[in-house]
Automatic annotation (TrEMBL):
Annotated protein name in UniProt: CAP-Gly domain-containing protein
Organism encoding this protein: Piloderma croceum (strain F 1598)
Keyword Cytoplasm: yes
Family indicated by similarity: Belongs to the TBCB family.
Single GO BP term: tubulin complex assembly
One Gene Ontology MF term: microtubule plus-end binding
Length: 236
């Protein structure tokens, strides 16, 4: 019988699905979690939740000598990692944009730039820039190669982050009428925004936070296997 547990790891700056052996001690777990969350071992407090929406913890994993299995951890439960001293590890600052200087452009300055969505649409005659009589929904030619069930990778602004998944939907939607086609993707990890439905309309079905809708030009179709990070006890 497998002793591998599949759980969600949630911290102020991270959210991912991970696999740990049930015999892993809490002390060993904290060492692994430091690599995932960036929170030093001695600053971690770990609580167990049934789901992310729960406000009451099932248990506090406070004994470093005990194994995960001792606390009755089950698949798809949530390990919530808190930082007892965020001023040292800067926890939460990656998601706090209140102190970030904003870069503003006037409409005239924006129109002059050649690296914007507006310039892209002008060059490719998309949307309102399409010639009279042509479809307002025409976009990049490679979109025709997107088919349901295809493996794909979604463009990410975060260096080194691969958002991989499977195409579950391709077509027009009710949430963005007249704005072309969208690609519905089921991610391999919970990096999405929905469960395949938006505004009460279901386009496909997947687990919560695994689904996302993106523009076709953000999707790369290919042989993208599921990436698994195996942090075993021999890694330092």
């Amino acid at each position: 019988m497998s002793t591998t547990l599949k759980v969600f790891v949630v911290s102020p700056d991270t959210h991912s699905e991970r696999r740990f052996d049930a015999h892993t001690t809490i002390g060993q777990l904290k060492e692994k979690l430091e690599l995932i969350t960036g929170i030093p071992v001695h600053n971690q407090t770990i609580t167990l939740l049934n789901s992310e929406s729960d406000t009451e913890a099932i248990a506090s994993l406070g004994d470093d000598s005990k194994a995960l299995g001792f606390y009755g951890v089950r698949d798809f439960q949530v390990l919530k990692i808190a930082d007892t001293n965020p001023s040292i590890s800067f926890t939460g600052q990656l998601t706090d944009v209140s102190q970030v200087d904003k870069f503003d452009l006037t409409p005239e300055e924006y129109a002059q730039r050649q690296d914007t969505v507006l310039a892209y649409k002008q060059r490719n005659k998309i949307g309102r820039f399409a010639p009279p009589g042509e479809s307002q929904l025409s976009e990049a030619p490679h979109q025709v190669d997107i088919s349901i069930g295809s493996r794909c990778q979604v463009e990410s602004s975060e260096a080194g982050l691969n958002k991989r998944g499977t195409v579950r939907f391709f077509g027009k939607t009710k949430f963005a009428k007249g704005e072309g086609v969208w690609v519905g993707i089921e991610y391999d990890e919970p990096m999405g925004k929905n469960d395949g439905s938006i505004q009460g309309e279901r386009y496909f079905t997947c687990r919560p936070n695994y689904g996302v809708f993106v523009r076709p030009d953000k999707v790369q179709i290919g042989d993208f296997p599921v990436e698994e990070i195996d942090l075993d006890d021999e890694e330092m």
